[in-house]
Amino acid sequence: MAATAEISAGAGRVARRGSIKGSRRKALFWSYVFLVIFVIFFLTPPVYMFITSLKSSGEISAAVNPWWVFHPTLDNYTALLGQRQFLIFFRNSAVVALSVVAITMLISVPAAFALARMKFWGSATLATGVFLTYLIPESLLFIPLFKIFAFIRDTTGIELINHWWVLVILYPTLSVPFCTWIMIGYFASIPKELDEAALIDGAGYIQMLTRIFIPVALPGIIAATIFAFTVSWADFLYPLAFTTSADQLVLPVGIITTLIKGDVYNWGQIMTGSLLCAAPPLIIYAFLMDYYVAGLTAGATKG
Amino acid sequence: MAQVTLKKVVKKYDETLAVRGIDLDIFDKEFVVLVGPSGCGKSTTLRMIAGLEEITDGEVMIGGDVVNDLPPKDRDIAMVFQNYALYPHMTVFENMSFGLRLKKFPKPEIKQRVEDAARILDITELLSRKPRQLSGGQRQRVAMGRAIVRHPKVFLFDEPLSNLDAKLRVQMRTEIKKVHQKVKTTTVYVTHDQVEAMTLADRVVVMNAGTIDQVGTPNDLYHSPRTRFVAGFIGSPAMNFLPCRIEEAAGALSMRLSDTLTLPIPVSRTACYRPHAQKELVLGLRPEHITEARAHREPGTAEFTVPVEVIEPMGMETMVYFSVNGTEISARVNPADAQQPGETMRFTADLRHMHLIDPATNLVIEVPPETRGDAQSNAAAALRRSAG
Q: pLDDT (tens digit, 9 = 90+) per residue, B327-385?
């Protein structure tokens, strides 16, 4: 009796372990299948850009295998980086993106702290409202914004259209609501006892924010920073609509307006420009990712 | 000097009353434990003392000053939270010194105070670690350290041990008591665990449904509870409650517990229970006062025989369960004398420790102290000592 029980228990254990192993293997197999598909899908365009940027115009138009470089050249890079115009685009983009990140963080972190922690009348509604504003797409907003700018010019004489710095005013309308929303979530995940402990230790709201909340929610702040940077660096519609003169353009718009002349596409330089344009965000992600992961594990223990 | 005084303190959340006008005096250097089931208002009371909850009505005074409108940081209190609430990005040293650094204490003094506190708590070698590198017990010590370095007027503990496992909890309990004996600061401690309350407190405050049922030393609460709630809450395993009828025959009182079971009321209690003759009351008797029948019967005890239903051996003693008139009763007996389930067993009820509760008010009928079991056994012990 005892022996049979033991045998059946043993058999059950073996069978169960086998099935867990098997299902794990199956799950891993499918994960890899889809990961490979996605990697190919998303990495093909940049790889193609890189290959094309190393070709001369002649080779691009020649009917040879487009996935191989037969006569690699850095002409596109030297030509582009030698143009004053391209460097102006780059500077405009950089100044806009950095200012937007700074403005966004200065607004959204205190705003999120207030909405998440200082319970006041209407704070919950306001928090939802902040997010709702983000849901309105920019393609719906640029026409009314254009109208508003025209109105401002007519009433005050201040010209806002066709200046690169107007983007510093425009992008926060996209980045602030979203970053505030992310930060509300992060701040809400910090245990309530932590601010109570800080209150008892003698911290005011400002000290609570700067000495406790910002360091603890650093991963969230980095995520928000990355988002704000990406929005302001890569956005296409607003600069296309609001800036026209060559010296006021930012990179994404500058590349296509100056490198496409009529129906002549300077593919080599377009690809090179796009690649150079994609480099800063890549570098920033790579740099912040370490902090991001380290921060995540640090915040995970609630202490 | 830091006594804490609550005067008619009320806390109202929207329409629900969490604390219903409590009065409490906590003396300087006293260790007071607020104990009660969840939702009884004990944590709310503590948080009102801390200043983390607004006081709807009444007055809270610390060291003689009304602090109702003072923010927590100006009340000169320190609090230890249930989940420790250590700052995860700071080292232990930084955690402990945070309050002092905010108050701009000179660096050498901060260092001195943190080191002193670390020595008291035996965490000196942990000062450079982050909270995530600490075990639960160590985090608890750091949380206490953070409170100690501030040299506050009052320590507040909000269920500080409930996140620890059973063994560590007992260890930290002793630790907290030691710390209190060393630093001698007025302490208010909240817990739902009556054992913690009994072992730590100079005085225990039993709270129930937003009111204070009784304030007293652990022994007071154990031997002379004022209400049925306190009687049932303090003591483990809990007191037995049995409906009974007081009968009077030939000048002696007895309790009828069932058709077949009647227990005599000790002579010393006759005078105070006589006004309740013929009434339906509830008998309260702790399991430790129902034991196996002994050869030598002391006055004030009564014997009876009932069938055993369940036994639970605990090692040092065995819990025996039986029922009287449908009510389950537990008894603590010598393991050697415990009978098997189904067999009958002879028990002794030590009625010198009995309580009678009026079911209409749920109040324990008061008896003069000299008739109480503890007084009698103390006297008997003294007698034995002097005889020996």
A: 999 999 999 988 899 999 999 999 999 999 999 999 999 888 777 766 655 655 555 55
Q: What is the pLDDT of residues A171-212, one digit of tens each?
A: 998 899 989 988 988 888 888 889 899 999 998 889 999 999
CB contact under 8 A, B71 and A194: no
Quick check: A108 and A130 in contact, CB under 8 A?
no
| Cβ-defined contact of A196 to B85 (cutoff 8 Å) | yes
Q: Is A191 on the interface with B (CB under 8 A)?
A: yes
pTM of the model: 0.80
Q: Among A191, A201, A212, whose Cβ lies nearest the Cβ of B99?
A: A201
Helix (H) or strand (E) holding A200: helix A192-201
Q: Which fold has domain B4-230?
A: Rossmann fold (3.40.50)
Domain limits, chain B: 4-230, 237-387
Contact A115/A123 with Cβ under 8 angstroms?
Answer: yes
Q: Which residues contact A69 (CB under 8 A, 6 or more apart)?
A: A51, A54, A55, A59
Per CB-CB distance under 8 Å, the chain B contacts of A299 are: 88
Segment A142-170, tens digit of pLDDT = 889 889 999 999 999 888 888 899 999 99
CATH of A75-300, one of 1.10.3720.10, 3.20.20.150, 1.10.10.10, 3.10.20.30: 1.10.3720.10
CB B288 within 8 A of CB B280: no
What interface predicted TM-score (ipTM) does this complex get? 0.81
Give the CATH fold of the B237-387 domain.
OB fold (Dihydrolipoamide Acetyltransferase, E2P) (2.40.50)
Q: Is B71's CB within 8 Å of A299's CB?
A: no
